Automatic annotation (TrEMBL):
Residues 347-454 form the Pyridine nucleotide-disulphide oxidoreductase dimerisation domain. GO terms for molecular function: dihydrolipoyl dehydrogenase (NADH) activity; flavin adenine dinucleotide binding; NAD(P)H dehydrogenase (quinone) activity. It is an enzyme of class 1 (oxidoreductase). It comes from the Bacteria. Its EC number is 1.8.1.4. The active site is at residue 444. This is Dihydrolipoamide dehydrogenase. Binds 1 FAD per subunit. Signal peptide: none annotated. NCBIfam families: PRK06292.1-1.
Length: 479
């Protein structure tokens, strides 16, 4: 077995691992970045980018199919599944290639291919060919789909997100299990591309929405175009000659339907269980997850750090990058460990309408403010710009603290949520009050005017500032 002695070993060459590597590199040349499978990252290969490519095709198809609303007659819209998937794969490959190239450009002594596992708190065995002794270690091993046992009965027709993006053609039908972020994004996109889809859930939730009022509204809107079984008890999953036959119980009645494939989007499992983590000498919780500080990413008071999806703290791309930076800086400077900047929570679901959440959830605000908070809201059904562009479905709810008037968080289902969420996240991070946010300029006619309406409503409910005039003429029509 080869032997290596390094200052810092990083396990996992995904986004968190690559960013951590760049930071460590500033302090030492004696570093190794270990990858067990392939270069290219989850985001570029099987995550953010290919999913958004599929969604982009679905949005084009949907726009064409609904263009007659504007008097634009597109005729019969035909979707060529082979061409759709060809573009998804080709564009995906263009995102993956530069990531792989940047990895391959690293000095050879900084790269190691092979699955890593802990032998003790400082020693890793990699691919059974190299033993690495590291002064400090960063775990950045990401996550993988978690598939409940019963779904495995779909056998060769069971797929996860990774498989979808290698399809050569679109299938006739897919049962999507898991109405969370991945299931909703992919399920709606496939449906809009002409695939027969049913979305199965267990708890009644959809798209990770936490505010019940928005969740109920969103369920109504998605239910108009998607077959939803959000509170289903799966009785049987059988691989038959035609595909996958599913029997489920819903509202006290048994239902059955056959699909070509079963897509499991039932959550993700951190890649901790394949590391022999029990040998690392760090505290584990009752689920076997390392205890760590989210501000330093350090596990207890050890020399081991954990960054990205693997710690399951905020499993999003920009958070993986931030955590890679913090863990990298701290591993480099160890034992001088510093707290890093954690940004305001921000999440976007690329459904249509989009879903976004910013800052604290309604339940967290309630807990933090001990019920001393108010809610402002706006419906986009009557919002001027949204009506003009035919996207007037949605609801935004903003939360503020009584007394201080501070903006605490928001949840949104509606048009341009990805953009409005950014404005809100920036205000939250700057700790702005709702009144200060209302001092900012709002153009006319734009979707952001809907945000202003929600903020004015919140200010009124916080009993701050002047009582807003009904039908404000300064604001123009349809705001
Ligand atoms: C379908 C889908 C869509 C998504 N869309 C979005 C989106 O739109 N926006 C967003 O912000 N986020 C999105 N995400 C989440 C985002 O992709 C992740 O948060 C991010 O990629 C996590 O990066 P990471 O570095 O933690 O993990 P990864 O990029 O997964 O890297 C981990 C690496 O560790 C390696 N590894 C694992 N175990 C070992 C081992 N024992 N030894 C050596 N190497 C190992 C793996 O092979 C992998 O290369 C999406 C995810 C999915 C699945
Ligand atoms: N746009 C984005 O930013 C984006 C997109 C995709 C993924 N992601 C990230 O990836 C993470 C994982 O996404 P995900 O969708 O896999 O997880 P998730 O936790 O969002 O959703 C999983 C869903 O599966 C349901 N479920 C669990 N067991 C089930 C069963 N047996 N039958 C039916 N439903 C079942 C859960 O109730 C939940 O609704 C997200 O939390 C997010 O951080 C982000």
């Amino acid at each position: 077995m080869n032997k290596r002695e390094v200052d810092v070993a990083i396990i996992g060459a995904g986004t968190a691992g690559m960013v951590a590597y760049q930071r460590v590199r500033k302090a030492t040349d004696n570093v190794v970045l270990i990858e067990g499978e392939r270069y290219g990252t989850t985001c570029a290969r099987v995550g953010c980018m290919p999913s958004k490519l599929l969604i982009a095709a679905a949005e084009r198809a949907h726009d064409l199919k609904t263009a007659d609303e504007f008097g634009v007659l597109a005729g019969d819209v035909r979707i060529d599944g082979r061409l759709v998937m060809e573009r998804v794969r080709a564009e995906r490959d263009k995102f993956v290639a530069p990531v792989v190239r940047s990895m391959e450009k690293l000095p050879e002594e900084h790269r190691l291919m092979g699955h890593a596992r802990f032998v003790d708190s400082h020693r890793l065995v990699v691919g059974e060919h190299t033993e690495v002794h590291a002064d400090r270690i960063i775990i950045a091993t990401g996550s993988r789909p978690n598939v409940p046992g019963i779904l495995k009965e779909a056998k060769d027709r069971l797929i996860v997100n990774d498989d979808v993006f290698d399809w050569q053609d679109l299938p006739e039908s897919v049962a999507v299990f898991g109405p969370g972020v991945i299931g909703l994004e992919l399920g709606q996109a496939l449906s809009r591309l002409g695939v027969r889809v049913r979305l199965f859930g267990v708890s009644g939730g959809i798209g990770g929405l936490r505010d019940e009022k928005i969740r109920d509204y969103a369920k109504g809107v998605f239910g108009e175009e998607l077959a939803l079984s959000l509170k289903a008890e799966t009785r049987r999953v059988e691989r038959t000659g035609e595909g996958v036959h599913i029997t489920w119980l819903e509202n006290g009645e048994e239902h059955q339907e056959t699909f070509g494939y079963l897509l499991a989007a039932t959550g993700r499992r951190p890649n901790v269980d394949n590391l022999d983590i029990q040998n690392a000498g760090i505290e584990l919780d009752d689920r076997g997850m390392p205890e760590f500080d989210p501000f330093t990413l350090r596990c207890g008071d050890s020399h081991i750090f954990i960054a990205g999806d693997v710690n399951n703290h905020r499993p999003l791309l920009h958070e993986a990058a931030d955590e890679g930076r913090i863990a990298g800086d701290n591993a480099a400077a160890w034992p001088d460990v510093r707290t890093g900047l954690r940004k305001t929570p921000l999440a976007v679901v690329f459904s249509d309408p989009q879903i976004a959440s910013v800052g604290l959830t309604i339940h967290q605000v309630d807990e933090k403010c001990q019920s001393c908070f108010a809610i402002g809201e706006v419906s986009f059904e009557d919002q001027g710009r949204s009506k003009v562009i035919g996207r007037n479905r949605g609801l935004l709810r903003v939360y503020g603290e009584h007394g201080s008037g501070l903006f605490m968080g928001a949840e949104m289902f509606g048009p341009a949520a990805e953009h409005i969420a950014h404005l809100l996240a920036w205000c939250a991070q700057k700790r702005m009050t709702v009144s200060e946010m209302l001092e900012m300029p709002f153009y006319h006619p734009v979707i952001e005017e809907g945000l202003r309406t929600a903020l004015k409503n919140l200010n009124r409910n916080l009993r701050l500032g002047p009582e807003p005039a009904e039908g404000c003429m300064d604001c123009g029509p349809g705001v």
